[in-house]
Amino acid sequence: MAHRQIQEVASEVFMVEGIASNWTVVREGRDLTLIDAGYPKDLENVLSSLEHLGGRIEDVRGVLITHAHVDHVGSLPGIQAMHPIPMHAHDRELPMLRGEVHEQASARDVVRRCWRPRTARWAFTVARAGGLSTIHLPQARAVSTGTPLDLPGGPIALACSGHTSGHTVYHLPQAGVVVTGDALVTGHQTSARLGPQLIPEFFTHDPATARSTLDVLAELGADAVVPGHGPSWRGPVREAVDRARAAHPAGSPQRRH
Ligand SMILES: [Zn+2]
Prior knowledge:
Number of strands: 12
CATH superfamily: Ribonuclease Z/Hydroxyacylglutathione hydrolase-like
Order of helices and strands: EEEEHEHHEHHHEEEEHHEEH
Shape: globular
Mean pLDDT: 90
Strand content: 15-25%
Number of helices: 9
Helix content: 25-40%
CATH architecture: 4-Layer Sandwich
Strand order of the largest sheet: 1-2-3-4-5-6-7
Protein name: Glyoxylase-like metal-dependent hydrolase (Beta-lactamase superfamily II)
Distance between the termini: 34 Å
Bound molecules: zinc ion
Pfam family, one: Lactamase_B
CATH class: Alpha Beta
InterPro entries: Metallo-B-lactamas, NDM-1-like, RibonucZ/Hydroxyglut_hydro
């Protein structure tokens, strides 16, 4: 598929670039863990990324969700319809997956900002990717945090809220990788900035918490970052956090658009 790019960021840990967001596949023997799953229109891309790694949807032992936004869970209803797989998210994220609360920039918010050329281009891309749909996954269960999960790669879920109330990162201690979702990104189609950074504030539910929650990442033993948006980043995660903080100095919050 045109948008699919697969990069092995560490042994058996693969970052896949979708239409406008990333997902991660962790392999252990024949078994796979899928972390996030792109937009609704990324369904074919997700399936072909598994195929490229020698797997099928039936080989995915569990899906881990960083947060309930459409660019991260969009293809999951399609996957679920093909083959039910246990799906896990933080328990504070489950109300959004059940459709009880909504912590995402609305289509109206986006349209109001479309005088910015980058935002207009991005909005067009994501609308075509199914980005205006609301994804409900009432079958998702609460993930247990802080200890290795019984899934390929032994991921450890860590609450890293702010972008959404239940945003979670997944640490892969054996591989030395942290999958940061939108808690820390390295680029976004609406921004010219590159390198470790916070996602534009317009997309974030609680920007002050998103800034302070970087402390969780700084503590981790990892030397590669797989973000929800932008390229992978290599180096101590503490340095990525320092760079993100330098990009958004404390006391001068990002400009509200
Ligand atoms: Zn995102």
